[in-house]
Amino acid sequence: MTASQDIRAVPWQAAAQVRAAQKRAVRTLAAAQIVGGVGVGVSVSIGSLLAESVAQSETYAGLARTATTAGAAAVGVPLALLAQRRGRRSSLSAGWLAAALGGVLLVGSAVSRSIPLLVVGMLVFGIGNATNQQSRHAAADLAAPHRRAQALSIVVWSTTIGSVIGPNLADPGAGVASALHLPRLAGAFVLATVCMALASVLLWVWLRPDPLLLARQHQDADKQPESGSSSRAAQVEATKEAGQSQTGTLRAGLRHLRHAPRAAFAFVTIVVAHTVMGAIMTMTPVSMSEDGANLTIVGVTISGHLLGMYALSPIVGWLADRIGHLPTAVAGQAIFIASALLSGLSHGSVGMVMAGLFLLGLGWSFSLVAGSAMLSEATPAALRPGVQGTTDTAMNVVAAVGAGLAGPLMGWIGFGGLNAVAAAFVLPVIAFWIFLCRRPV
After folding, report:
1. What is the pLDDT of residues 368-379, one digit of tens each?
2. Are 152 and 317 in contact, with CB atoms under 8 Å apart?
3. What tens digit of pLDDT does each residue of 165-202 get?
4. Nearest alpha-carbon partner for 393 in 138, 94, 134
5. At how many degrees (to 10) do helices 16-55 and 186-206 cross?
6. What is the C-alpha to C-alpha distance for residues 249 and 246, in angstroms, rounded to an integer?
7. Which of 138, 140, 136, 164 is nearest to 37 (CA)?
8. What are the structural domains, with CATH classification, of the chain?
9. How far from 109 is each of 47, 103, 171, CA to CA, in Å?
10. C-beta separation of 335 from 363 below 8 A
11. pTM of the model
């Protein structure tokens, strides 16, 4: 083996410069997730209260979640296309800055009691959700193949802190509102706006070098032919592919999903997991209240669910890198089925519902972490942002539809029946897995 061949055998991610850039990127992304995630956490709990206060009607309380989900779904692909053209640094910092602008609009709606301003503000504020979700992909751009899931999971884990702090900003926000002579609920969104703007600044200043652009440079260098007439043809072909990747990224990404089974499996796994989680999580508090559980017990149950979603993600990432992304994603489906059995057969047992909802969050973590790492692994760098943005948009849209249908479905077949339907949703993922196992290598 020649020296040049020996060098080529070492993956480019192992270079000292790349390893240093990866560590810096993960630290920066995690810090931005913590700070920006506080703003996202505010929308989960206080957004509905603000909507009810502005509109003076309980009917509008659900408007906050619907509008923020719609905002996240609408910008998933545009943010990905911006990353494709300008890199992760521009895309993510712009996303958090836009979400901060949404916070300003929401403060304005609280002052003016304007419902149209409230709706627009919630839509723009929802960009923070999309930015939060796409940040995990940036952690995998420079990661070594055997550490991709673990790097991604650290950024997912960072969301835990924001999701815990954000919903508890009502009282500190009231103090801020009093000092600024604003309506009481507006204060929390002042703090959320500051946090999201700070996340934007952190990424713009510290996410250097840009992980996606650096990864693309190394992968392009690996594709450079060495010499000869055949190298000229290869250069022409590489230039043609690069041009196609820069224009029509979304179309090229969709074509990639149709022709790359492993990427398609990751796409289906992520979308199904987010849909199952959203539908059951939405209706569990309703079912518990109907069975006589008080708000404290409901709150503890939801906290356990969030623990399953985020807190254990580094362990899930380590496991995915150790045993493989595909087996870990399939294990997530088994956890979903166990969750559905516990919750669906609980018959009012608080302990069983708590355990079921914890497993629901854990199944989501297994599916999202392993699926996202697998999607990154199975997609060329030139197409990666478009495919990832399409996946995030799809998971938000389908999950929103699933959450909307969960209520009528539970009214028709009960909470047990809803869990049975959720369990059935994982069957296509398992069937896809069997297809991949039988497919010739």
Report:
1. 999 999 999 999
2. yes
3. 776 777 888 899 899 999 988 998 999 999 999 999 99
4. 134
5. 160
6. 6
7. 164
8. 15-210 (1.20.1250.20), 246-438 (1.20.1250.20)
9. 12, 10, 20
10. yes
11. 0.82
